[in-house]
Design goal:
Two copies of one chain form a homodimer.
Chain A (H helix, E strand, L loop, with lengths): L3 E5 L4 H12 L4 E5 L12 H6 L13 H6 L2 E4 L2 E7 L4 E6 L5 E5 L2 E4 L3 E3 L12 E2 L4 H11 L6 E5 L3 H12 L3 E6 L10 H13 L3 E4 L3 E7 L2 E7 L3 E3 L2 E4 L3 E3 L2 H5 L23 E3 L6 E2 L6 E2 L4 H15 L13 E5 L2 E7 L2 H6 L4 E9 L10 E9 L5 E8 L3 H13 L4 H4 L16 H13 L5 E2 L1 H10 L4 E5 L3 H6 L6 E2 L17 E5 L4 H12 L5 E4 L15
Parallel strand pairs in A: 1-2, 1-7, 2-3, 7-18, 9-16, 10-11, 10-16, 11-12, 26-30, 27-28, 27-29, 29-30
Antiparallel strand pairs in A: 4-5, 5-6, 8-17, 13-14, 14-15, 19-20, 21-22, 22-25, 23-24, 24-25
Helix pairs in contact in A: 1-8
């Protein structure tokens, strides 16, 4: 008799594990139990289905129940598994269509139970017009109801990547969008300076973004949402999208006595085995090892689910594959902005025991003379002691995805700034500057490590200007055109080209911080002053680009 | 007295070394000698200046002589250095404007003498209307003369990347372009299967591409080119662009007694020091170490020149930087096709003593359901024994640049297929399929290494069909629509979904090769047949995509 593989969960990791196992061992009996009425769909594409960018719901379905059947895989839709008996190798559950209970046995079991959205404990969360976006059925509901012209003002609670993707989708449907985030910044996986760039971009696109404002209440009229309240204000809302994050779906695993990890997700080893014999788990319901911090982390992503599903598929069919861990690489698009991250941010790096340094550079998509060039801001983080690259963030209309993929590979190879600084990346004018921005960032990090220059953050500058303005000079070395556009109040402006002849204007007894747009020209100014004998000078990291507040121009 | 740095050569590596050295040691006296009348220009952008895509010549100039002067760097234009006396630390040369000789001394010397185009030894090479494209002055000449409506037919001799970039430029100027290449394929750094994809694309774009046809003679009328002759034919030509490759410019180094390497370029160590004390060299005139083969190679590129210039700048000013070597990463664009490579191709891998395996996959730019997705064909090469990744090639309208950059980082990190197969790359639907094509290729390579399946190349299939058709079956498992478009003559067509019910049509005593578009579906068919007990079966690498000839549809 052939062995039997039972898979619980049918969106990403589950179907991948089932298909791979069946390919490796065609004699295996394979059954997928799926609570929802659809299987193997592109969950990450839902915001684009809501916006109408993806025209047909069917396009999101990678494979139907019938297609699985053709490959000899049985899919049981609307079957909710409610109990696992690991000693008896049995599962029990409910057929949601007929209301009948069912029982099944397995030789190998795969848990791919995914995650569920956080539902806030506030009044009004069950009013009509309050939505979530997790499953394809949530998306169906949004598509049905949001097209109504009566829904004009939409509040998105939560400034994470799904919230922002939906901000784009809803805005493209002509809605007036307000984003409400209780933390002091949106996209909390990013450093605050990078998050601010995203926020400013969204504001330019006409969205209202409120940070540091937690949802306190959803108010309604006649059972329908009419506004939301934060600590500070009431915001009109014809609809509310709650996008407060997700949690691993682990009830079934907990009930079965499987070990849960410190993150609350299912514990698995490198082979994706749970603590129970012949029971594997993969996808959003499991935790992984972070390859930089070495810590257990829960970073649910469709890409990870697919890789883990493959490893499980190989292992349940007698092979020997491993999934060593994750780097936390992630990307999302909001309008033309590409927002991407890999590895650790500054705070995470400190928490992991590193002494992080960062370099912020302008990341162009092509040579300076090539038409249509796009720009992202690239921040790369390395450890001061070892020089090891720890992470990166990229934000903008430029090739954020390419930069982050390249640096994720540097992380995977445990490279230091010196190795990264000599990487051999593909160059020709339409594709990159001759020196890739990734290399430029690595060179800046090397210079910082070797104390070639001293630096200061924009936030520190702001503080000093406010508290110790007498002993402190902020020198702006940009061109007139730029200063007319925006200028930091209290700064002294001397264009780089005129620095030497105006050196008398600078008091070398004071601390002098030098800034330009992002830090490259001010670095040159720094070296000129250093050569002239100035001692107490610093280059402003990320320049005016990372200034924490909105600025106006002034000559 | 401050030390004096003399740099010979002012396009890429030279100015970079000078600028970096001056930044590191502002007290250094720095002089750049440049034979041409322009300095620090974007040589790689010349084809786009010729096409008019870059509107202003000035845009190509990164920095002028005056800008260098502002930073305290003296540029001597139209000064040709003709002799170096390394013992006396002296140089001698000619001021091309005045005709006067000059002499200078140095403490450190940098040779950045670049390269020159190969001039063929054929009759007619000095006729009017015969062009090269190496310097900005060559480009000026082309811009002046090519706009004439009398120049209709242009023959480009040489199918390398500059030849193909110029094919685009000239085609955009309305010229009828013929490319003539003496080797059996264009872009000889690529494997033949990939080169064929580029050739077919160029032909679709209306260009005539002749391979295996060497230039034998350029013919003229009244001193002006009128045609070229190959062994097989005469081709009408109102202008000829000779793009036969370049050679390192090493005369000065040879005369000075510097060691030349086995490639003919200047030998340098990791610090970019030549064999003479205090003499450094960088850019197109030096050879490097290939980080995969370990061999000395000469791969002249603007990106390499910049990195080497930086290392020299640090070292001449007392620092300690190294340039470990190159991976041969390169990219060019021809119309919307992005053609990129890193590491070794199949032939190079064999020559370096590896046992190369390859995987060819379709490299999509986004999730299958995301609109506007573009596709490149991605070929990744690994060593059968160690599993180490050796190289990759990508060709198409998709993100070839990103794929190649990611794999170049895998090469830099000396990764194997198993590590690459679990890389954590940035995924969301607009940017990548959930499983990046890079990972899919790594998985195919792992399967090949583990003998999960047997394979055969398209060229071998063609041979067998011609020679041993009786014992050999080529099974096509694609859909009807695809077969109507193109079909390999002599193939047996059974769509994958109908394979099981039609299994009786297959004779399991014969050798059966299975193909689809690129190899993914035929792999599934392979596993089905294997499960049914077929022994002598093979999957066709790269499918019909890599078929060596043009095909027609037939049901």
């Amino acid at each position: 008799m052939p062995e039997k593989l039972v898979v619980i969960g049918g969106v990403a990791a589950g179907p991948k594990a089932a298909a791979k196992a069946k390919r490796c061992r065609p004699d295996l009996e394979v059954v997928i139990y799926q609570e929802e009425g659809a299987v193997s769909y592109g969950g990450c594409g839902l915001p684009y289905y809501v916006s109408g960018k993806i025209k047909e719901r069917n396009q999101l379905l990678a494979r139907t129940k019938e297609q699985f059947a053709q490959d000899g895989i049985q899919v049981k839709l609307k079957h909710r598994v409610e109990e696992i008996k690991v000693k008896e190798k049995k599962i029990k559950g409910l057929n949601l269509e007929t209301g009948d209970q069912f029982v099944d046995t397995y030789d190998k079991l795969v848990l791919a139970t995914g995650s569920f959205p956080i539902r806030p404990q506030v009044a009004g969360a069950d009013l009509k017009g309050v939505f979530y976006l997790r499953s394809i059925f949530d998306a169906d509901l949004l598509v049905q109801q949001l097209f109504s012209a009566q829904i004009q003002n939409v509040v998105i609670v939560g400034g994470g990547y799904i919230g922002l993707e939906m901000a784009e989708s809803l805005s493209e449907l002509g809605k007036k969008v307000t984003i409400v985030e209780k933390m002091p910044q949106i996209v909390t996986l990013f450093d605050q300076d990078m998050a601010r760039l995203v926020q400013r971009y969204l504001e330019k696109k006409g969205m209202q973004v409120l940070v540091g404002e937690g949802l306190q209440e959803i108010r309604g009229e006649q059972g329908r949402v009419s506004s939301i309240r934060t600590a500070n204000q009431e915001i009109r809302a014809d609809a509310v999208l709650l996008s407060l994050g997700i949690r691993p779906r682990v009830e079934l695993a907990r009930q079965a006595g499987l070990r849960l990890g410190e993150t609350g997700a299912i514990w698995v080893n490198e082979r994706m085995e749970t603590s129970a014999e012949d029971v594997f788990a993969a996808g959003d319901c499991v935790e992984s090892t972070h390859l930089i911090s070495g810590k257990r982390v829960w970073i649910p992503l469709g890409s990870t689910a697919n890789k883990q599903g493959r490893v499980v598929g190989i292992n349940v069919s007698g092979g020997a594959a491993v999934f060593p861990g994750v780097l936390g690489t992630a990307i999302f698009k909001v309008f033309d902005f590409k927002v991407a991250k890999t590895g650790l941010n500054m705070r995470e790096a400190e928490q992991a025991g590193f002494s992080p340094l960062s370099a912020i550079v302008r990341g162009y998509s092509g040579a300076h003379y090539y038409p249509g060039m796009k720009e992202s801001v690239l921040k790369v983080i390395a450890d001061q002691k070892s020089g090891r690259i720890l992470g990166a963030q990229a934000v903008g209309e430029g090739p954020s995805d390419k930069f982050i993929d390249v640096i994720s590979m540097a992380l995977l190879g445990r490279m230091d700034c010196s190795t990264l600084g000599n990487a051999d990346l593909a160059y020709s004018p339409p594709f990159s500057p001759a020196l890739s921005p990734v290399l430029v960032a690595a060179h800046v990090l090397q210079n910082k490590r070797e104390k070639v220059f001293e630096w200061i953050t924009a936030d520190e500058v702001k503080n000093k200007l406010e508290r110790a303005a007498d002993e402190f000079v902020l020198l702006d070395v940009r061109e007139e055109k730029e200063v007319k556009e925006k200028r930091i109040p209290g700064s002294l402006w001397i264009p780089l080209g005129q620095l030497e002849e105006n050196i008398g204007k600078l008091d070398n007894k004071k601390e002098i911080a030098i800034h330009c747009h992002s830090g490259a020209r001010s670095y040159k100014g720094y070296l000129k002053l250093k050569h002239k004998g100035f001692k107490n000078i610093k280059n402003v990291d990320g320049g005016i680009l990372c200034w924490p507040e909105e600025l106006k121009g002034a000559l």
